[in-house]
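Researcher: Good morning. I'm working through a list of sequences from a screen, and I'd like to move beyond sequence-only analysis. For each chain I'm collecting a predicted structure so we can compare shapes side by side. This is the next one on the list. No need for commentary yet; just the structure.
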Amino acid sequence: MAAALKARELGVEKIIILERSETLGGILEQCIHTGFGLHYFKEELSGPEYAGRFIEQIRQSDIDVKTNTMVIDIDSDKVVTAVGPDEGLLKIQAKAIILAMGCRERPRGALSIPGHRPAGVMTAGTAQKYVNIDGYMPGRKIVILGSGDIGLIMARRMTLEGAEVKMVCELMPYSGGLARNIVQCLDDYGIPLKLSCTVVDIHGRERVEGVTIAKVDENLRPIKGTEEYVECDTLLLSVGLIPENELSKSAGIELNCITGGPDVDEMRETSQRGVFACGNVLQVHDLVDYVTLEAQIAAEGAAEYIKSGGTDEKKYAYAVHQEGVRYIVPQKINIASEKDVDLYFRVCRIYKNSKLIVKIDGETVISKKKPKLAPGEMETIKLKKDMLSKLKEDSIVEISVEESL
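Model: Good morning. Structure tokens for this chain:
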């Protein structure tokens, strides 16, 4: 919605939003907790309130919206094929496409946890929908595996609904969620967070009866002799999100092996000219405010592409992650760019009192002290126009973390 509104503001006249759900708003509709909008609207909103502001703007515009419509294919000529109950099969020839399909949760099948397949094992997002949308309680005695933000939020939500959340187990030696969520969702309710710990067995045939947890070593392998049985009737999984890029694959778009999303330039254009990506389909974000800002960047890129007819030739410099940095988005920068460029990235582990170093072709252009860096929180650093003037074709922009002595 943010991308569509920005494109309309920039003069694009024919815009259509294709949404597979019955309503606009995506996952925000089930996120009834607050914490949204602090950066973008400068106030604290719930998920439905945040989405509602964009829905109202869409309603007041002439942007065409088709809900309950599933896109099933995007080809290399930018022909979008979709299907819906009202109009059947649709084929739309687009001049530009913005991909905003979001992400999906990693399920139990990706974890290979031993045990039967009893009721009571589900992703945290599924449990959130049961409680917040459908009005069902998934269980009464809960163990949560994974400390991503949705797992932390559901620990609080289940507690508020009267369930007993026994613990949150995290495979890594650090939490995957925002620091504020650890405090507000676990510490404030006395819910223990067990780091370097995982579920090694699920007990029960018809319904979950309990789980066995164990400590893991530095190679993330369970340590024999540390097993502990925990009685519970529900296991919630918050073990990562996967960008939803099946459509991107069908369009022949190059995907990044680390982010799971497309490789893009500073305007979020993918390897296919005229196709742009934003939000969680590109990289998993912490805050919806940043998703909105990224959508607006993609809209600017799409509007420029339409106006130029896609005839402009781009020459790129490349962003490369170095020591301590897991990935960088965007992965390439048009050397003709005349705007400041924000680089988003995540670090590989927790750092304290460290330095962020940015180099262009080996020359340090930014050295910034950071009291704390954590993998669960996305970082950003701005390359200003004067720095970008140093870029040549195939220049290398490096970001690394340097530990202070």
